[in-house]
Design goal:
By secondary structure, the protein is mainly α. The chain has three domains: 79 residues, no CATH class; 139 residues, no CATH class; 138 residues, no CATH class. The protein contains 18 helices and two strands.
Amino acid sequence: MIHEQFNLGFIFNQLPNLLSKGINCFTSESDLFVKLARVCKQDPSITHDQSIFRKIRNSEVDHEITNELSKFLNFDEKMLPTTPIEEIDLKTLGAWFLVDSMINGYKLNGYCKNEVASKYLDFIHAHCEVERAIIEELTVYKQMPQIDSYLERWLVAKITFPEPSVDELASYVSSLTMYVCALIELGLEALNESDVNSILKKVLPRHEIKKQEHLLIPSSEVLLENTKAAWAKDKYGKEKISWEQFYRDILTAQARDETLINKHPKYAEIDFINPDTNAIKKRFQRWRAGDLFTIEDFRVYLAILRLPYKDAKQHLGLESYFLVNIFTYVQSDLIKNGIHPRDIEDLFSRYPEYKDIVNSRFNEFKLSGVLTP
């Protein structure tokens, strides 16, 4: 039901799609609305079999279904305020509209805990205005501005329209991904009043050659490697331990967590002396190959080593899996489109540069109130 037009943009191109991949908590739009309904109506008994969700799965989008869903979810009373759509030329709609609506919701619901957080939301709104203006030039006034110059200024990505090369498209996709993720990391720092602590700088993909085969080690695998190395140092005082030992420690932690085994008794069924690690090994192999994480994955398989299951949900930040998922998803997509692993490593190695660009623009914005490339 999310119209493809809401994925349009230049800096925010395909942003709703990227965010949904990052969150990785629903399998379809109907699944999303089922889970949203359970939260909005505080009713866990809501299922996919209810009439409205069957219609969403089986029907084309129309006003009747949209109105029925809005009424069912009680949007008028419970949803956050959005950017007034009646004030907008519908031809200029894009991903910026969803971002701007979210920003308005944050502002009107008291999420600005400090001046820095307030400035950050204004900073993102300014990006939305830039996106809106460029879409307006393209769609309303039928003028083709120098898009390549625009993207080079804002994303430091060289691309030639109207027929960019495959390599230029790869550069553009990776650049917008890194820029958006840098914006999100900045937001986590501003809204949480925390110091700079970029997890993405620590999980950049790398290129390896094994048996004359060029391989990409995606961000998901780098994260798991880092987690294992940190556990080896803290638990054993070693630089590294085997994956087998890591799996055994995770299984042991799961089996000893009362909250987890009360919710999922299967985790108590292990042999502490010689646990069967085949299932967890296969799961980790999928993640290391580029499968995306869920927040539950993090609670059960990684955070469990350091945090009780009951405490993990409130202590795990979005950056722990959400941003890594976005990086991993884009890297996997580039591989599928024939981009060489070495080139992907080179592209994402620039992430610290994008962190610096975003931070520099934000610092200037705080002083002037004007967003400039």
